[in-house]
Amino acid sequence: MKLKPLHLLLAAILGSTLPSVWAIDPFTVRDIKVEGLQRTDLGTVFNYLPVKVGERFDDARATESIKALFSTGFFDDVRVERDGDVLIITVEERPTIAQININGSKLLEKDQIRQALRSQNFAEGRIFEQGVLDAAVNELKQQYFSRGRYSVIIKTQLTKLERNRMGVQFDISEGEVARIQRINIVGAKVFKEGDLIDEMALTTPNWMTWYTRTDQYSKPKLQADQEALRSYYLDRGYLEMAIDSTQVAISEDRESVYLTLNITEGERYTVSDIKLVGDSIVGADELQKLLEVKGGDVFSRQKLNKSTAAITDRLADEGYAFANVNAVPQLDKEKHTVSFTVYVDPGRKVYVRRINVAGNNLTRDEVIRRELRQLESAQYDGSKVKRSKQRLNQLDYFSEVNIDTAPVPDAPDEVDMNVNVVEKKTGQFNIGAGYGQSEGVVFVLSLSQNNFLGSGKRFTAEFNNSSANKVYSFSLLEPYLTPDGISVGYNLYRRDTDPGEMDIGDYSTSAYGGSVRFGFPTSETNRVNVGLALENLKLQTTGDSPKRVLDFISRNGDTNMTYTASVNWSRDTRDSASYPTRGMLTSLGAEVTIPGSDLDYYKTNISNQLFIPIYDTTSLMWNVDIGWGGKIGDSEFPFYKNYYAGGVSSIRGYEYGTVGPKDENGDGMGGTKKLVNNIELLFPIPGMKDDKSTRLSLFTDLGGVWDEDTDPSTDDLRYSAGVAFTWISPIGPIKLSYAKPFNAKDEDKTESFQFQLGNVF
């Protein structure tokens, strides 16, 4: 006897309560057959089937079997039939995804799209389910929404293939980027709405949003902007400020976004009192000095956070790595004052058991460990851990450096310091060009490796060519000749120069030479370098060469060999080498010829750059550069070693090298004495305050150059002022300036607009 099929879907809905017309007379299963399988293994079915040969089979077991097989997700339909004592299971398998095609994607790479699909369990080889496909399409839309493409349209086409397989095609119309057309802040009374909007990263379209893309809405950016607004109020005393709600409205064409933030400002609070409580370990007077918040001050969360962080860091310097410093407020809402009790719990003093280094696939362990100031088996010191991270970042071998301290199990007074780095490519092969108004077009070819074979050694082979200079050079630096950090560097070069192209004299030089230098660290920020160098230089004249050049050759010949010794002391406390906002860079140097040279002379240099933060992203830079040289004994100071001033990197508004004495041809001669002073107000481009590669500035420059027989005088100084733009671009630094010379003389060569593109040497 053969029963009518029992279908899974209805059985799953009705459970064990089946109509009597589907009743199965109980029987003992003698055999089980499975029909309809194409890809699924027979053993897989038996593994999920709750009935075995020899067991009793009835209505309840039939329902249970159908549910079990259907719940695997492998089948669209499951039927149970009986042929005598043989149980027959008939299944209809779901199709598998054989191929996925993606059309129309430009913003997202196809690999990114496939990864998003896989995150929803939709990939080739998986079983096709319409619900999973719908979830995958929704995930793709979210990927586009996060990039401001709210008008994206994603359509799918399904194609049935042989052997119960399915082809899926995604047709994507990415649409236009939705741009923020208006931002409203409702409830702002104390501060102007415009000032609050300026604190936000999101903006409406302006002249720079084609580059910054800050007019493209994203939820994470809006959340960050809400926190920025809270910080703005909390740093100005509004302790109870709250953002009640935000509304994001999208236009019908889904290409315009309108933001509204509803806020409650609350009252302004002042600090009535602040006191320290707990076992501070460090003297209370010392910790009190670390508090930036004082009684009577307007409350500032930023100052309070800096205070607690400073106390935490101070305790960490004494070995208390897990100190807990909490400021507990007590509000007086009637008087609008707040008092703080700062609870200090230093915890247990800890020691570093082991330092683990990870992520350095190329760089040797020793290259990393020699930069660490925190040592194994030593007391934990927070300042040394921070300095270790700074030194690793300054190597420029890694795109990311993270240092964390993990407690050692069963050893409460020990930690392991884990140093995790992400290496970046340190070798470069560059073919490029630049332009400088003083040198014209420059062609550059260079091969460099800052971390040769992971050893930390640096070498560079370079060739650059312009109308004024042609240079071949090779240099090698071993930063750790000794474990103490003594460095040694070597340099070989060949340089051909035509000063006539720069309007500083009708003659040319051809020189070759080399140098060796040693560096000695005297502290974490100070360094002394000493070196020896030799140079052979040949002068070539033309019919228009000035008398000073011809006279020099007649007295000293057209070829001179010099041997020089040099010493330099430098100190660098800047917070960044490429985008400094605070700190100082100071350099004192001297160079003198030694016996055996054809000419005897000396040169000294003093330079100092001071960066003072004014407000947030605005800083004041003060640069002073002084040079002084002269002859030794009866010798003569070589004119081609003169100091020069003028140009985009010196006194802007004057042509390169033309400030100071002139020869009979009107070309700049340079001199043995130089003074350059620059004062510059540095600030980000409006709408690009978070971009660390560009800067605008207002500047004033002054300086002068004097020859050997002339004493420096303020009457000879040249002045200028203007505006400048700097961009650290992928092809090298770009500098542009517009300056107005104040007291240019008739013989001076001026140029208001000056620029330099790319790497100019």
Automatic annotation (TrEMBL):
Quote the subcellular location field of this record.
Cell outer membrane; Membrane
Show which residues constitute the signal peptide. 1-23
Question: Which GO biological process annotations does it have?
Answer: Gram-negative-bacterium-type cell outer membrane assembly; protein insertion into membrane
Highest taxon of source? Bacteria
Keyword vocabulary terms for this entry: Cell outer membrane, Membrane, Repeat, Signal, Transmembrane, Transmembrane beta strand
* Location of the POTRA domain: 27-94, 95-175, 178-266, 269-347, 350-424
GO CC annotations? cell outer membrane
Q: What is its main location?
A: membrane
- Its function? Part of the outer membrane protein assembly complex, which is involved in assembly and insertion of beta-barrel proteins into the outer membrane.
UniProt subunit comment: Part of the Bam complex.
So what family is this one in? Belongs to the BamA family.
- Show the NCBIfam families listed in the entry: OM_YaeT
Name the UniProt record assigns to this protein? Outer membrane protein assembly factor BamA
The source organism is Chitiniphilus eburneus
Supply the source organism's classification.
Bacteria, Pseudomonadati, Pseudomonadota, Betaproteobacteria, Neisseriales
